[in-house]
Design goal:
Elements: H1 23-29, H2 38-51, H3 56-61, H4 63-69, H5 75-79, H6 83-89, H7 99-119, H8 122-127, H9 146-157, H10 165-174, H11 188-197
InterPro entries: Adenine_glyco (IPR005019), DNA-3mA_glycosylase (IPR052891), DNA_glycosylase (IPR011257)
Pfam families: Adenine_glyco
Organism: Nesterenkonia massiliensis
Length: 205
Amino acid sequence: MSTPADSGADLPRCSWASGAPEFPQYHDTEWGFPVGEDRRLFEKLCLESFQAGLSWRTILTKRENFRAAFAGFQISTVAGMTADDVARLLTDAGIIRHRGKIEAVINNARRAEELIAQQGSLAAFVWSFEPRPEELGEPQTMTTSPSAVAMAKELKSRGWKFLGPTTVFAFMQSMGLLNDHAWDCFTRPRVDQARAQFIRPSASS
């Protein structure tokens, strides 16, 4: 995560950052900054799947509850969850109590373990789908892309659930696989710099 140079309210930001009190901090320090840590990537894939049909504010305000419920999104721990854990989570008012999405998180943790065994890290897999500049349009004008379609298709073929192209593209935006901040947003050059310095993970040979 990155700390903004100035947290003043008068700084130019993406228009969505003014949509809720929780958004400026998330916008300034997280959204679009590149992430190469498997746990954080897995967490965001899970939270994006929970968001389907809901607003991001709903998920963001419950994020700490989700982290507590799913053991900090440690992949191996989540992969070991059982039907008893599903039953427990369905009574947890701090999260979204949707059986299909809860079961998908556990399933996807198991699929993530398989993927990591094959490629060395979840990060290596994710970053292999980094969008090419020529496939992207003006900032925040797209809801999916060829690379997001390809990643969603590959995840589905590997047995992942609740991760379609639109969800995957939102994940890519937030995890820094592209810089989708508005041209005049003060965070855009900071994300450009972070992406330039970021060492892309590669698959194990």
